Structures are given as C-alpha cells and as structure tokens.
Amino acid sequence: MIGPEEGGAEFPQEAFRNSPETVPEGACEAATEEILLLRKRIATLLTERPRAVRLPAELEQRFEEETGDERSRYLVLRNLVALVLINFFLFSDRFMIPDMMVHARVVRLGLITPAGLAVTLMIRRGVAPAVREFFVELITVMSGLGVLYLVLFSRHPNAVYYHHGLILVLAYANNVVVLRFRAALAVSVLLSLLYIGAIPFFAIPLPLPVAAHYTLSLVATAGITLLANHGLEQGRRYSYLVGLRERLRGDALAADNTRLAELSRLDPLTGIANRRGLLHHLEEIWNDSSQRPVGIVVADVDFFKPYNDCYGHVQGDICLKRIAGTLRAALRHQGDLVARFGGEEFVVVLPGTSADEAFRIAERMLRNVQELAIPHQEGGDSGVVTISAGVSAGQREDGRPPLEIIEQADQALYRAKEAGRNRVSCLDPPAASASF
Predict the structure, then answer these.
(1) How far apart, in whole angstroms, are the C-alpha atoms of residue 406 and residue 400?
(2) What is the end-to-end Cα distance of the chain in Å, rounded?
(3) Domain count, the chain
(4) What Cα–Cα distance (Å) separates residue 73 from each residue in 80, 123, 139, 179, 236?
(5) Which pLDDT score, from 0 to 100, does residue 290 have?
(6) Strands, E assignment, 69-217
(7) Are residues 305 and 407 in the same domain?
(8) In whole angstroms, what is the distance from residue 241 CA to residue 40 CA?
(9) Strand, helix or coil at 63?
(10) Where is this region: Disordered (predicted)?
(11) What is the predicted pLDDT for the residue at 21?
C-alpha cells in the first residue's frame, strides 16, 4: 500500500508541524513588511545621506541600543586615561605656574578627579545614553574651565605659555573621547568664547598679537578637531548601517532557506507533511524517545480510485484535503504529526503513545472522517467516503528501525482492508479490529 508520493497544484499555506504556539500569519506578514521598509530606509540613507552624523530617530535609537554598551566601555577607559593625564600635569604646574600650585591641586585633585571618577563609575554601572553623554560633556567643560582658571589668575611669567592647555582639552574631547558631534560643537564654541572673553582679565596681560595668536590657534584647533569628529561620527553610523543592512540580508536569506526547507517537507496539495517531512520528523522523535513508545497509524482512503473515476480528480483533491484536515484535527499535542505518504495514504506519528492508545485515536479518526459525510456512490454500504487504518507502536530500545514500525502498521492496514474496510486493525498483541 505504501506507494510513491503524489502532489497537486495548490500551494501550501501552513506548516505541517502541529504546534499550538504557531505565530499568526498576519503577525509574520507585518514583521516581514516592517523589515522590508527598514531595509529600504537603510538603502536610502546610505545613498542620499552617507555623511550623516545623526540617523532618523528610530535608527538612532537602534544604533544606541546595539552599540551603547561598547560606547560605555570606551568612555570608561578614556575617562580614566584623561584623569591620569590631568593629574600628570601637576608636575608641569610646579614649573609653569608655581604661584598657583595650591589651586592646581584643588582643581585637579579636589574637583575634576572626584567628578571624573563619579561619572566613570556612573557610566560603568549603566545610565541612559543622554545622561551618559551629558556628564562626559560636563567633565570636558570642567577640565577646560580648570585650565582657564589657573592661567587666568597666575602671575608667574611662564603662565603666558600655558594657554595651549585648552587645545589639549579640545583635541582629547573631540577626537579621543569623540563627543557626539553636536555636543563637541557646543563644547568647542563655549570654551573658545570663554577664552576670548577672559583675555582682558588675565593677571598677566597678553600683548594683542600674542592674544590673537592664541585665539587663532584655539579656534583653528576647534575647527580641525570638529572636522575629524564629524568624520568619526559619520564613519561609525555609516559602518553601523552597512553592518545592519548585511545582517538583515543574512536574516532574510536564513529565513528563506528555512522556509524552503519547510516547503520541501510539505505536501503541496494538503499542506501537511509529505514523505520527506514524515521521515525527518520521525527521525527526530525516534532519537528523543528512547524510553517512550511511538505510535504509528497508517490510514488509506477506501475505494478512492472509484471515487476519482466517478467524481473527477478535482473533487478527489478536495476530498483528500478535507480528510487531511480531519486527521490533523484529531491530533492531541505538539509533536504529533500527520503526513501524506503517497496518493490517498496517510501516516500519523504519535510520540509517547502505546499501541492501544494509538488504536483508540485511529478509531476516532475513522469516525470523524465518516462524519464528514462526503458522498461516495462506489463506497460500499455506507454511501460516504471512509478510511481504513493499521496501527503499530515501538521504541528505539526494541532495536527496530522506525520504518519497520510503519511497515508493521501497513500490514495491519492490509488486514483491515481484507476484513471489509472502514475499520482499524492492529498486529501488536492484543490483536484488535474495529469497524464502523
């Protein structure tokens, strides 16, 4: 009875695994459409805005979610290095502004260092991205104000050479810490304006050419480091978009491959498993069920060739689809499987099911098919389409391969056919047969 697999012309619309956790089709379509829209937006951004330093809100949020932890680790390390450098300049303060040493210790050790450590600890423990970036900007401004304060009030002749300290602050913040571009721009403008505004108030007045030189140097440094900062920020987002695009492509390809693998194990007419799907599922169940029996039901539509001859192949296909749906509806839980094994023959796999229990399930299937009341003039006394079924059960510990269990159930099906059809038969003891 076990013959070659046959197919129809219709495309299957549902998976053959009978799981109560199946994702609704509408939800899958919505998710797929959302991903397609995202891929289009990414392609547009890479083409039209390749140098953007800030992405649209949704993508910027996603960028932060996926890179935020790495950014936090990056800032923690750079903050610690900055604090070491800030305090290292105490050695320079001793020779350049010795009259401000007490103030230098207060500024560097008493203000900037504790604040920097607090911010670093806060970032390490995790804070909102906006809070994290704000406090990094705040420490940058504090560092710049600290340098400006020391040179503003020092009366030592060497203090005039100390003005370039602000250049180091901007270079480190914009290109090492890499503040967000808008923040880097705001900090650079603020510190530059504060320096320009402080020029008339330095304890040691600067000659106009020197003041102009220092101002030009500071503004030029701000511009150069901002240009570099823009490139770094743009590069990060561009690389992220390219990586995200490739990940989405990979996910789509993997989903397509998974779908193709599923379709290759589906019967195109009925939407249930085909022979390949049955054998794949049975192998998985067999490997996972060494201590549990696996029940097998082989069912065949009675007098199906006369039905096709009488009603036509279109009605024959409809009949097979209705029977397949009825058999599937009789299954109990995830792991149970019904497959079209070929032509009008179906195989049902019932993990954790003894022969007796499989027999009762097969009886219920027979009743359900008969209750469909599909007219069949050539179908015997019942006048409707019926099925016959053979039942067997086994487990891996028995030493028998699963195909042997199917073969045994097929032999029981022969017995049911010979006994008059529309019945269930089982070769396993206790031998049983029931008709309807």
Answers:
(1) 11
(2) 21
(3) 2
(4) 11, 8, 17, 14, 16
(5) 62
(6) none
(7) yes
(8) 12
(9) helix
(10) 1-24
(11) 37
228 and 303 share one domain: no
Asked if 307 and 376 touch (Cβ cutoff 8 Å), the reply is yes
- Measured CA to CA, the distance from residue 68 to residue 54 in angstroms comes to 15
Tokens read off for 210: 């020197």
Mean pLDDT over residues 83-107, rounded? 95
Supply the pLDDT for residue 35.
79
pLDDT tens digits for range 174-203: 999 999 999 999 999 999 999 999 999 999
H-helix or E-strand spanning residue 382: none
Task: Flag whether pLDDT at 337 surpasses 60.
Answer: yes
Residue pLDDT, tens place only, 7-36: 333 333 344 444 333 444 454 556 677 777
- 230: exposed, middle or buried (Cβ count in 10 Å: 0-12, 13-18, 19+): middle
Q: Tokens representing 342?
A: 């070929």
Give the pair of three-digit tokens for residue 116. 């920097």
Is 227 found in the same domain as 164? yes
One domain, residues 239 and 285: no
- The pLDDT of residue 53 is 79
Q: How confident is the model at residue 7, as a pLDDT? A: 39
Q: Is residue 345 part of a domain?
A: yes
Virtual CA dihedral for 163, 211, 218, 194, nearest 10 degrees?
80
Q: Do residues 277 and 284 lie in contact, with contact meaning Cβ atoms separated by under 8 Å?
A: no
If asked whether residues 103 and 190 sit together in one domain, one would say yes
- DSSP 8-state symbol, 11: P
Burial of 114: CB neighbours in 10 Å, binned 0-12, 13-18, 19+: exposed
Q: The domain that contains 339 carries what CATH number? A: 3.30.70.270
Residues identified as active-site: 344
Full domain range(s) for residue 420 = 275-435
